[in-house]
Amino acid sequence: MKADFTRWLPAIAKDSYRKTALSVAGVAALGGLALAPTAAAAPVTSGPHQGAVAAIDLATGKATTSAHQDEQPVESGLTTGSATGKPPAGKPSRAQLIPHGIEGAQSRVPLDDAQLANARAIVDAAKKTGVGDRGAVIGVATSLQESKLYNLGHLGAYNDHDSQGLFQQRPSSGWGTPDQITDPEYAATAFFTALKNVGGWQDLPLTTAAQTVQVSAFPYAYAQWEEQAADIVQQNW
Q1: Is the model's pTM score more than 0.85?
Q2: How confident is residue 20, by pLDDT bands cut at 50, 70 and 90?
Q3: Smallest Cα–Cα separation from 103: which of 224, 231, 184?
Q4: For residue 39, which phi and psi values (nearest 5 degrees)?
């Protein structure tokens, strides 16, 4: 981040159940994974980006196999919306979640338990900060682009400056300490606090709202995750 966002951040106590940040030493190939606002954005694809899959597998200690190369989007209730087009009872509608329509081709990645837990933490923070379901979609889409919903620690030589966590926030830009920004609740709350300071964010396209907070070198990369983010929020709201 180029700006100092210290004035936007609340004093958030670190809970005892803070999720452990993922870290990796000696990662040889990070491909197109957007590890920080200034890192190369993943290209728009219909399935998981191979470079991103390889990077996440290395970061989580999983072996990368050739099977990932032809992997298709996961068709399950965890990442897709209602089969009937109607929201489940008590859940926000598609029109509420994507009021401006999607922008361009969409990307989608399968989610494991760690990613789902982090997505729920973002949704919970959206509720607590009052940004609502639309804010939650912006938050989840931003994290999908920045870290693929993994709580990444410092990746050594492959890190972008001091960016860490779900949103690849930087201590040097005033987002908090490394311990704070790798606490999913803190990181999401900090993101939403900054979002609320963006005038008229509710009426902005997702990529514009996210970019105003993140100050990314690739501002249009966030748009590709809007549909999957909406699905995730609808399932977990």
Answers
A1: no
A2: low
A3: 224
A4: -85, 165
